[in-house]
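To fix ideas, we reproduce below one chain and its tokenised fold.
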Amino acid sequence: MNTRLLEILADSFPKILIPGLTVTIPLTAISFSLAMVIAVAMALVQFARVPVLTQLCRFYIWVFRGTPLLVQLFTVFFGMPKMGIRIDPFPAAVIVFSLNEGAYCAETVRAALESVPAGQLEAGYCAGMTWMQTMRRIILPQAMRTAFPPLSNSLIAMVKDTSLAANITVVEMFRAAEQINARVYEPLALYIEVGLIYLMFSTVLTWLQRAGERKLGAYENQEV
């Protein structure tokens, strides 16, 4: 590796890392938080089998799981202005990532809810709780423990998926690497470097996931 390339990598590292900390991570955190709100709401509606709303939820999930994320980004950012609705790049990315991830997480949460024994719901009714109280105090806590590993995997995947936001001019890590590459033209080295930064973020989240799983496992053992 020549001196020039080393200098380029040393100079580019903070220029890629800073957008990762100030754009990629906030984009992931905000989008995933909104996605979880959507997912829980959709899962509860389907679990309760609310007429009409259940069909609307399934339609939403069908659309967002069945179309590419990149197409969704382009539709919102480039397509909506044709209808007179202009959205800045970062909010557009948040909207799309939230709706897309919400559709996938909704199915994860729904499956977790259905894995809780039916007797738990009946026990809540016998204790004088309403359906919502039973869900909040008994069913959801158990379901979310079951859903924790797959939801954590979804979060890690979203960190990497945020690189697609570069296509709608969001200056996150990958976009920053592209801008640097346009000046110095070292695509192999720069894209490996940005890949390693994504790997670093994903590794930290993986450690947190394992710590969370151990804590939940210890909590379940105490309950037993």
Q: What stands out?
A: The first helix runs from residue 3 to 48. Residues 152 and 209 are 6 Å apart (CA to CA). The domain at 3-223 is CATH 1.10.3720.10 (MetI-like fold).
